[in-house]
Amino acid sequence: MKRLCYQCVFLMLALAISAFADVTVGSPWVGSTVGSPVHYTATGTANNCNRGVASMGIYVNNVLKYTSNGSNLDTELSLDPGTYDTTVEEWDQCGGASYTHVSITVTNQTGVWVMTPALNGQLQSPVGYKATSNTSKCDKGVASMGVYVNNVLKYTTQGNSLDTSLSLDDGTYNTVVEEWDKCGGASYTPVQITVGGGGGGGGGGNGKTFTSIQGSKGWVGYGEYPPNYQICTDCGPGVTWSMGQHVKTPSKSGNSTKFAIGGNKPYSDVLFTNHLIGSQSSQGVYDKDHTLLTTLHNFTYDAYFYTTQLPVVQVLEFDISMYFNGHGLIFGTQCRVQGGHMWDVWNNVKKHWESTGKPCNPVNSDWNHVIIQVQRESDNSLLYQSITLNGTKYTLNSKYAPGTANKSWWGLTVNYQLDGNINQADYTTYLDDFNLTYQ
Predict the structure, then answer these.
(1) How far is CA 353 from CA 1, 322, 432, in A?
(2) Residues 321, 310: contact at Cβ < 8 Å?
(3) Domain range summary for the chain, segments of one domain joined by +
(4) Dihedral of the alpha carbons of 234, 338, 300, 169, in degrees to the nearest 10
(5) CATH homologous superfamily of 125-195
(6) pTM, rounded to two decimals
(7) Distance from the first to the final alpha carbon of the chain
(8) Which of 49, 123, 221, 324 has the fewest beta carbons under 10 Å from its own?
(9) Which of 245, 248, 305, 246 is nearest to 427 (CA)?
(10) Cβ–Cβ contacts within 10 Å for residue 55, how many?
(11) CB within 8 A of 295, min separation 6: which ones?
(12) CB-CB contact of 256 with 216 (8 Å)
């Protein structure tokens, strides 16, 4: 129904992230839940100034809270409970600057907060574990953290954060992420997972899976105006949007993400995108030698979405895009709600949506489970294999020729898009247990 400019998105995302690439933040993680005081560590690099970095600082909700000399930063900030937009910035000795945004939630509660894997997630080995912890029972803080698998301690690390991967055979596991404080106390969070079985609905047993993507770092939002739907970042009142991660309710896992659209220009859209593989990877899968992406052929987009405002939803869109060697493959899939309760797929050559003839009838005020399976053929054609919504599977097997892209673009992204209706009515959706399996 609407035109797309995902190649524009890929370019703007690359430019935006490269502008921030001079500040590497070790702590805290983007989207993490932490206790106060918040520990910040970061390193700045002045790529365009041979005299180096002069100083670094931390902004909290646009207010400068801390500065230090040199290219390294290591400090703690006392913050009240709440959600903060913080920024770590470096200033070089030639008058330039660069920065990295770090959104965090500060809590005064005791606990262990697991960012990944998702509760009841179905994934592939090795399984990534990422968590933070806080203790209000011990003023000396957290001593260490660990991961138990079926009551056996498999991993430990010092400090109040944990980031590791565990190799596990296929099967269902009762895992626990635990923290031990410096006063002899402990707290934990159980995370049951299933390893193997195709990574949540497809992709084969040898695939790998990005899990809980909705709660990970790297999301960027863009507005799109009709009739051409070119992306914009400072879009004015015609289209507005917001995003909030680590939502407890409504949620399936306790870690959903809120996506909202508004504005006053009819039929305007909001595109949310996350770069998973390539030089701007939010997951650390950079494919620097270009040996991974060209080997990938099978993908499964597996997510749950929720809204209480389904009657005003025009379209919800779920996409996988890959760019390499001058090829642009956009596996675009959309559910037309006000637009006719039908599934569409994207034609990369003709650059328009084509109806599958398959109905799309999500449920209002409940969680809807969507699984989309696609395949890149040996000639780089796009094969839309199937769409499953709430247990009903529609087999497509529709094949389309690939599009073209700038030869310098290299990577894989996932998108989630909200389309506005004729009144550009505000609405909010939630995404949870969002996994992408690839092989």
Answers:
(1) 6, 18, 26
(2) no
(3) 23-107, 125-195, 210-438
(4) 100
(5) Immunoglobulins (2.60.40.10)
(6) 0.59
(7) 30
(8) 49
(9) 305
(10) 17
(11) none
(12) no
